[in-house]
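Q: Hi! Curious about what Mitotic checkpoint protein and poly(A)+ RNA export protein looks like structurally. Here's the sequence.
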Amino acid sequence: MFQQSALGTSTPFGGARTTSTTSKDIEVVSPPEDSISSMAFSPAALQQNFLVAGSWDNNVRCWEVEQTGNTVPKSMQNMDGPVLDVCWTDDGTKVMMASCDKQVKCWDLASNQTIQVAQHDAPVKTCHWIKSPTYSCLMTGSWDKTLKFWDMRSANPIMTINLPERCYGAAVDYPMAVVITAGRHLIVYQLEGKPQEFNRAETNLKYQHRCIAIMRDKKNSPTGYAVGSVEGRVAVQYVNPTAPSDNFTFKCHRVNCANNSYQEIYAVNDIAFHPVHNTVATVGSDGTYSFWDKDSRIKLGSSEQKDQSITRCCFNHNGQIFAYALSYDWSKGHEHYNPQKKNSIFLLPCFEDMKPRSKSSS
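A: Let's find out. The predicted structure is below.
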């Protein structure tokens, strides 16, 4: 399946940039047929760029992203329930698929076969591959209020950690993991040696946490995280802040209405940090994506409003490509669902747009 020769790198992804990002957004062919719940680009171990996406149509799709921006559908795998999360192994040979069917399956891309590797008592909301100097394993978080770790050679987890509530999201960047749950719980884990709780953190967010991403410092080590809420707000927090002012929140994904007399507030659906610049992207139920420089605390830019929510986003491993998914996120209930609106994934070249503004943080 993945035997193509490596793509040339002489031309930036998508060709030359223009001042308008919209004109450079490239639509992925053969998109999912239901709301898109998860996306992930292949790791640096692969010379080509591959994108996988899981959706509520029970499928996980894989595309090759060519240097021109063209996408080539490669394969698709099916689960017995909506797919809630996907992740790659560090060597790029396998994709993990977490589903409402309470299972996680491992998709071996070379053989195009799947095998069940994890099991919970409720839908599995998150799956993350952990690669440490001493071990590799799969971490899964579920609505059964547990976090489990699997070496995939056994039907039983090597470790189970009880959570205070249902797992709503997680982020992993060795040696750190962060989990958000119902009830606005946020738990930081350290993964060295064996996974264990580091602390339980409070945020200034007053409403339910919806998404989480880990950020790095200038030495490229995980140093903190950004949490998005249903209330159009993001909290940026350091594990060991040097000053209380290091931790802050900012508003986003809000639309001014009626001569600025009030705001419509939308959920932050996903957060992703740029792998080179460490700037951050947010996407929301308002149908926009925005790029931010957290160090200078300024917005680098944002898109025009799309015709439906943006549910997920991600960067490829070298930060050249930003992918975002348009689909209904059900935030307005079933009565606002419009089956005529198709689900879409778009790619755009983003390296220049994501550069920090201030010299001190570049």
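A: A fun detail: The chain has one domain: 26-329+343-354.
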